[in-house]
Design a protein that fits this description.
By secondary structure, the chain is an alpha+beta fold. The chain has five domains: about 45 residues, no CATH class; about 90 residues, no CATH class; about 210 residues, Ubiquitin-like (UB roll) (Roll), CATH 3.10.20.800; about 150 residues, no CATH class; about 45 residues. Helix content is about 30%, strand content about 25%. The strands form twelve sheets. A four-stranded antiparallel sheet has the order 17-25-24-18. The chain has a three-stranded mixed sheet with strand order 6-5-10, covered by helices on one side. The termini are far apart.
């Protein structure tokens, strides 16, 4: 009888328990690997004849050979359909790569595939061949990526077993660091794939590389998992993994993702090629009659939805090939319905100014600017910039050289006079009670409207007149010129009470008289050129908006304030050439009369001749003409007339008409 307190007995019992437990674990594993549920299990490990291990045979080694079968008896391997037998042929030998295999039922032999392959056995003797990718050469790998892997992986130098692939890349015999470089290279190849974005609505397409979509590898540590395969601490688990590698190989997935913001940028950057903006319905007016031109539906790319479609497609079974994707498009509805636009016929505000005293060029500029503004329509909330509508001020855009303000000077520029266009429109707009967003007064007073009723624009300084349609309906701008008068009408749908009326009145707050004189020089003009400009009085003014309801004033408010600078009598003098010291001094002293006198007597330029006595010369010319007339028999009155003409001509000759 066992003494359970005896240590030797206890060790025997423990050994028996461990053996039972091992059997309990091993038997199911071997049965599962062999595809059997009830056949007896042999604990002798059976090695297949694989390259480098041809000397090993089933059931033992050359030192301990397995017993030979009795004569006439079938080899256990020949009769077995156990997958652990490694798919041996009937004579017990596994065919090497390149040997001829003959499948059951076929008379013609076929050559076994070379390269990395695995075979599984069957009871019929058929050999099914599984093809794996060709192994990667370690010498072909990027050393920079290999080095990079050392900062990422836990076991960068561990060698992977034959049959292991990652992302379809055969990593057999590579270290984990080398496998990292190989898979990274495969990722780079994927990045060159083209994704063609399409839009059936606009029948357009654009291609983008996957690299532009921000592809990145999310699980590089899968290489540690792949590297551990076949290196299990448990001998049975390791044996099973080795057998799996021999038959089927093991592929580990390299998971990828995309930078959504980068995908959206790629889509957005090409959205213009697909988008087709809606064309709003608009109005035209001919012969006093409005006509409606219907709008057209447009399409715009839904960037967020389209980016999601691209990412979903590439994360669903994409293996690096080129693909096509249909973008998500949104309908861009045009503004304006025919029914509403047909109601735009009420005159909300109108204003007219005259330019009767203007020369040809200025008149042409006013007509051109009016033409460029005529026909604009604003939907509710839409803003108009006069400067945007009528620029650039170039000859190609229909403008001529004419006088315009530059500070306190009047200079010729393309588009001179255009401020009368913006001023006339400004007065029509404020009477329509649309919202004024931006308005500037002139630097000096102008004569075609009262102070504070003007709206200056200047392309060089960015001065602009902007306003917004603050009504609930579209408005139409009509502009035309006739008989050197410019008119703007604002049409819309009148919603103001019939008894409502507004009036604008200018109030001058201060008058600033100009002082002194100012001479400007122009190096492009020769010495002797002079152009004199009249002085301008300065003003401070404000504009009142007065509102009436049924003829009764209900409000009075200051609408704007303006300051106009005074400008003294001025002259622009040509300085191209060498001036005399006295002429330079006269310019510096801003003495216009002295400058004119020196130009008249010819002493403006350096080395000028002495002053000429104009009076004496004129008298001499008159005497000579009188004498000739008398000698010719003319009467006294005729002779005196000729003398006066001769004197006047001499004065013009000597003074240049100044």
């Amino acid at each position: 009888m066992f003494n359970l307190h005896n240590k030797k007995t206890q060790r025997i019992i423990a050994g028996i328990i461990v053996a039972i437990l091992v059997l309990a674990m091993v038997i199911p594993l071997l049965a599962q690997a062999a595809g059997k549920k009830s056949e007896p299990v042999s604990f002798g490990i059976e090695w297949e004849a694989i390259p480098g291990r041809e000397d090993e045979v089933q059931g033992g080694t050359q030192e301990n050979p397995a017993p030979a079968p009795e004569a006439g008896a079938a080899s256990p391997e020949a009769a077995s359909d156990d997958p652990l037998s490694g798919g041996r042929t009937d004579d017990g030998a596994e065919p090497d790569d390149g040997m001829l295999l003959e499948t059951a039922g076929e008379g013609e032999p076929e050559e076994a595939p070379s390269g990395n392959t695995a075979r599984s056995g069957s009871t019929t003797g058929e050999a099914a061949v599984l093809n794996f990718p060709s192994p990667v050469s370690a010498e072909s790998l990027d050393p920079v990526l290999v080095g990079e892997a050392r900062g990422i992986l836990t076991y960068p130098d561990r060698v992977m077993k034959s049959g292991i692939t990652v992302d379809g890349v055969d990593c057999s015999g590579l270290t984990e660091a080398q496998a990292y470089a190989a898979v990274s290279g495969n990722m780079q190849t994927r990045r060159q794939a083209l994704i063609t974005m399409e839009s059936p609505e606009t029948d357009k397409s654009e291609a983008v590389t996957v690299a532009e979509l921000g592809l990145y590898w999310t699980n590089p540590l899968v290489l540690d998992e792949a590297g551990s395969y076949g290196h299990a601490a448990n001998i049975i688990a390791r044996y099973k993994e080795d057998k799996d590698l021999e038959r089927n190989g093991a592929d580990f997935a390299a998971e990828i993702s995309f930078d959504r913001a980068q995908v959206e940028r790629a889509v957005s950057g090409r959205a213009g090629a697909f988008s087709q903006s809606a064309i709003d319905a608009k109005l035209t007016r001919e012969g006093g009659v409005f006509n409606v031109i219907p709008g057209q539906t447009g399409y715009v790319v839904d960037v967020g939805e389209s980016a999601g479609r691209i990412i979903d497609m590439l994360l669903s079974g994409w293996a690096g090939e080129n693909r096509r994707v249909e973008l998500a498009m949104e309908i861009d509805e045009p503004r304006g319905k025919t029914e509403e636009l047909m109601q735009v016929k009420d005159l909300l505000g109108t204003y007219t100014t005259s330019y009767e005293s203007s020369g040809t060029n200025r008149s042409n500029n006013i007509a051109n600017g009016c033409r460029l503004l005529n026909g604009h329509m604003l939907y509710p909330g839409e803003r108009l910039s006069v400067l945007d509508c009528i620029t650039p001020f170039t000859e190609e855009n229909g403008y001529y050289l004419a006088g315009s303000y530059l500070g306190s000077q009047v200079v010729d520029s393309f588009g001179g006079g255009i401020c009368q266009v913006s001023t006339t429109l400004y007065n029509a707009v404020i009477r329509s009670e649309l919202t004024v967003n931006e308005r500037y007064n002139h630097s000096m007073i102008i004569g075609y409207v009262e102070p504070s009723m003007d709206a200056a624009i200047a392309e060089s300084s960015g001065m602009d007149f902007k306003f917004t349609n603050s009504t609930e309906h579209p408005v139409y701008i009509e502009g035309y010129t006739s008989g050197k008068r410019i008119t703007f009408n604002i049409y819309g749908i009148e919603t103001r009470d019939p008894g409502h009326r507004v009036e604008f009145k200018s109030e001058t707050l201060e008058v600033i008289n100009p002082e002194g004189e100012k001479i400007y020089t122009d190096s492009a003009q020769p010495i002797g050129y002079i152009s004199v400009a009249s002085p301008h009085t300065g003003y401070k003014a404000q504009l009142w908006k007065i509102t009436y309801e049924n003829g009764v004033e209900v409000s009075r408010e200051i609408f704007n304030k303006s300051t106009y600078n005074p400008a003294p009598l001025s002259a622009t003098v040509g300085t191209a050439g060498e001036m005399s010291p006295a002429f330079s001094e006269a310019i510096a002293s801003n003495n216009i009369e002295a400058v004119k006198a020196m130009i008249n007597n010819g002493t403006a330029a350096a080395g000028s001749a002495p002053p000429v006595d104009v009076t004496s010369e004129a008298q001499a010319a008159a005497n000579e003409a009188y004498a000739i007339a008398i000698a010719e028999g003319a009467d006294e009155e005729t002779a005196m007339a000729r003398a006066q003409e001769a004197a006047a001509a001499k004065v013009v000759e000597l003074t240049g008409g100044q």
